[in-house]
Amino acid sequence: MLTGSPLLMYLAGLLLGLVAGFFMHRSDYCVAGMFRDAFLFRNIGLLRALLLQIVATMIIFEVARLFGLLPLYPFPLLGSPSLANVVGGLLFGVGMVLAGGCVVGTLYKMGSGSLVSGLAFVGIIVGSGLYAEIHPWWVGFVKATAFMNGKITLAQATGLPQSLLVGLAVLLAGPVFFKWRRERRWLTPAAVAGYVQPWQTALVLAGLGLLSYLLVGMPMGISTTYTKMAAMAENLLAPEHVRQVAYFWLVPLDVVHPVSGALMRGGAGPLIDTIWAIQFPLIVGVVLGSGLSAFLLREFAVHLRVPAGQLVMAFSGGIMVGLASRMAPACNVWHLMGGLPILALQSMLFLVGLAPGAWLGGKLVSWVLLRKSG
Amino acid sequence: MTDQDKQPNFIDVDMRGQVCPATLLVAMDSMNRHREVLLSGAARLRIKTDNRAATNTIPATAQNMGYEAWVRKDKAYYEIIIGL
User: Fold this and answer.
1) Quick one: average pLDDT of A20-49?
2) Which chain A residues have a beta carbon less than 8 Å from that of B20?
3) A273 to chain B, minimum CA–CA distance in Å?
4) What ipTM was assigned to the predicted interfaces of this complex?
5) Half-sphere exposure of A155 (CA within 13 A, CB side)
6) Residues A139-143: what's their mean pLDDT?
7) Which residues of B, range 48-77, sit inside 8 Å of A by Cβ?
8) Is the pTM of this model over 0.80?
9) Assuming Cys at both sites, which of A75, A122, A145, A287 could form a disulfide with A218, CB separation 3.0 to 4.6 Å?
10) How confident is the model at residue A92 (pLDDT cuts 50, 70, 90)?
11) Which residues on chain B are in Cβ contact (under 8 Å) with A306?
């Protein structure tokens, strides 16, 4: 466990991010695209890889838990379910499709030189900052629609053993995976240089998720730090206002790591705390890892001649993603690659909202793009 | 010189730097809009893109629509040629 040393946490996050960004760029492992293309083009090729990542993560998290390697279980920052998870997921789904990438897809695309994703990145920070302003109103909705108080996972809600539920999920997914293997559907034909098959990246990301959990006490997540960046920027321009925004001074992470004894404490405010130490290096790592991949392939390029409509759409989508990742709360990386593998109720509800949101986003994006090209 | 280079007339579409899934949507739109000239063999569609995923999805879609497709790397981007 590295949670006792901030320096090692920074290094761990940076390395995890570098590897994640590199592989995501090589496979164009875009979660927004996976859901969008399933609805818009009836192409579920990449969604298969995401499903593999979720199931593989489920298995290795459970094995690690059984071996006593995950003393913080369920991991911190997860809570009881509410309708806010569905509504947040829905808005997130629309936003990520309009932005052309989720909270991490935006990073790896920006790292390879995408101006559109750079603008979506700014939009996510703006949206994350805007959430702080509406938090007092939104938290009322969260409280009014919360249920199963104190229950975080499906196992806690049903009273069934976690291993049994994971086993059932694997039994359901296993035959489908083997059927896809027989039909050679795991292989994506590729003409690009340095292509890594998405199923390989899925397994790498599952491994990185476990490493993150082992090293810093929780799976990969980055979206709170977008709010911290917004708070830091606001703090430069209007420090008095930042002092008055209650959301910036909440401390949702406040636990002592059972093994290292380190105090893990942090929130969305403009402070360098445990959340910053975990998430910020990951963000930097993904951007640099993707940039390195693009540079090695001689594909790094910034194109400035992008239709204005697309820039507006990506920025607006980014604002939605930023807002939604606080409303949900948390983003698709946290929920799909961390929460869903432990069958967290919040994450399951996030997915319930995310899918129709991506469908709606696909409708909107095709209308905007074809209207512009026509 | 490859076979597709011998084609004298190209309809050029430059999609570099554009948001996903603009490349595929505009490619599909162009294939429909120029269907007659593309199927007659009088011209080919030449799409420039830096979207790595589009080099998989556009040729697959073009083949489903009855065209042939070629992909080649050119400096920091890819060219997808569609025609007969």
Assistant:
1) 95
2) 30, 32-33, 36, 100-101
3) 34
4) 0.88
5) 17
6) 96
7) 50-53, 55-57, 59-61, 71, 73, 75-77
8) yes
9) A75
10) very high
11) 17-19
Q: Is the residue at A173 inside a domain?
A: yes
Residues near A204 by beta carbon (within 8 Å), at least 6 away in sequence: A19, A20, A23
User: Is A10 within 8 Å of A277 (Cβ atoms)?
Assistant: yes
Is A374 contained in some domain? no
- Cβ of A365 within 8 Å of Cβ of B16? The answer is no
Q: Does A40 contact B59 at a Cβ distance shorter than 8 Å?
A: no
Domain count, chain A: 1
> What is the span of the domain harbouring residue A114?
6-366
Q: Which member of B25, B61, B71 has the closest CB to residue A191?
A: B71
Residue A235, both tokens: 């703090």
Query: Which range has the worst mean pLDDT, A100-104, A140-144, A258-262, A295-299?
Result: A258-262
Cα-to-chain-centroid distance, residue B44: 8
Other CB atoms within a 10 A radius of the CB of residue A239 amount to 11
How far apart, in whole angstroms, are the C-alpha atoms of residue A19 and residue A7?
Answer: 19
A372 within domain boundaries: no
What would the two tokens of residue A253 be?
């992470």
- A303/B71 touch (CB, cutoff 8 Å), yes or no: no
Residue A1 lies in a domain: no
Q: Is A192 on the interface with B (CB under 8 A)?
A: yes
Q: Which range has the top average pLDDT, A40-49, A50-59, B31-40? A: A50-59
Find out whether A301 and B77 touch, Cβ atoms under 8 Å: yes
Taking contacts as CB-CB distances below 8 angstroms, the residues of chain A near B75 are 298
Query: Which two three-digit tokens encode residue A108?
Result: 């790896």
